[in-house]
Amino acid sequence: MSSKAVPARRNAPSGSRRPRMGASRRRMFLIALGFLAPALVLLAGLVLYPILYTVVRSFFSADGGAFVGWDNYVTMFTNDSTFTAIRNNVIWVLVAPVACTVLGLLFAVLLEKIKWSTAFKLIIFMPMAISMLAAGVIFRGMFQESPNLGVVNAAVVAVNSAFGGGDAAYPGANPRTDVGLINDGGVIASEAAVGAGTEVNFPLVGVRADNVPASAAQAESADTASADQITGTVWLDVVIGGGGTNGQIDDGKTGLPGIRVDAVDASGTIAATTETDAAGRYVLAGLGTETYRIALPASNFDEGYQGVSWLSSGLITAVIILSYIWIWAGFAMVMIASGLSAIDRSLQEAARMDGANEWKVFSRITAPLLAPVLIVVFVTLIINVLKIFDLVYVIPPGASKPAANVIAVEMWTVSFGGGSNQGLGSALAILLLILVLPSMIINVRKFRQERKS
């Protein structure tokens, strides 16, 4: 039998050694640290140091010269403005993220079925390209109380008028002088009391032509009053282009329809009331033998229905939240649409083949598959609304600012906006950080889970 020769083992040269793993890892760590060092320095200088300094500063007085312990935190939670800010932040967290997420989901799902979906998505996302400051200026202009300035109230007034809510209103009206009429606090009335069977006319001036309704006709003299009536005419005592005699009904002078006319007795009781017709005529009937003053109430001469006071204290938070939804619904739509494009469509088709309607496909398949994306969008929006500042600072007028206050605005106000109390402002900043941290931690964990999967 022949045996194979076993090759002799070669011994490594005594001077060469394998590099140890510990040294290699240290070298790699030092290289990685060198690359990360600039970012770590920036992170420490721009994030870590400000946080630590704010924590320390919150325990000092307004000028930073004296240590006051927890006094700033006690003051913070005993101020009415802080409670208003916290309450408004709670409203923001409960309303804005939910509304944006729901609208984003609806847009993402429904716009897939529209032919021009790309154009619609672009329109919905376009507000994200506008700065929050510019969006605030836009919404403040849109919701101005005067319908001559605010487009929303202009539309509300137009709809109200179209459905018969536009009562006649003649702001600025005044009686002609030397015709036996007075203006008593906005009420235009006869200077002397009169009895039944007489005629009392009201030549008025100061009415703008655009306030005269289209139904107004040429002014006409009222019929002769019977024994239990007082009659008369209310007209605009102006002829366009000039001419005519003051205090007399001439051609070209317009009757003022829809004006309420009251007969007021000596005790101040309204004995009879009526309204003028298209020619401005009125008839007060059923009067007794006593004397009456004929009055046109002040309600005839107010501005009429002017819409809703959107920027008042009661509605200002709703308007600001609406502006936020207008901006951020597009962000939610894009995020959810990206998740929607990644789901397995075969599951939806299988459900449809099994007879499921679109609502069941959406609620049982699409929504559960989108749950991770929806959670990320929702939590991101919560973090965003807790820090909301720009819109709340820009949109409210001065009288409504306290009602719209939020923590970020309160922090800026007490620190730099006239309060000059950076100790209290630092305490508010720490409160805001504590409120934001849980949402940030949830988002970080969610990102890690998605990366592992």
Automatic annotation (TrEMBL):
Topology in membrane: Multi-pass membrane protein
Superkingdom per UniProt: Bacteria
Pfam families in the record: BPD_transp_1 (PF00528), SdrD_B (PF17210)
Transmembrane segment boundaries: 28-52, 90-110, 122-143, 315-340, 361-383, 424-444
CDD domains xrefs: TM_PBP2 (cd06261)
Subcellular localization(s) per the UniProt record: Cell membrane; Secreted
Annotated stretches, region: Disordered: 1-20
Keyword entries, A-Z: Cell membrane, Membrane, Secreted, Signal, Transmembrane, Transmembrane helix, Transport
Predominant subcellular localization, coarse grouping: membrane
Domain ABC transmembrane type-1: 86-443
Family: Belongs to the binding-protein-dependent transport system permease family.
Name of this chain's protein: ABC transporter permease subunit
Organism: Cryobacterium flavum
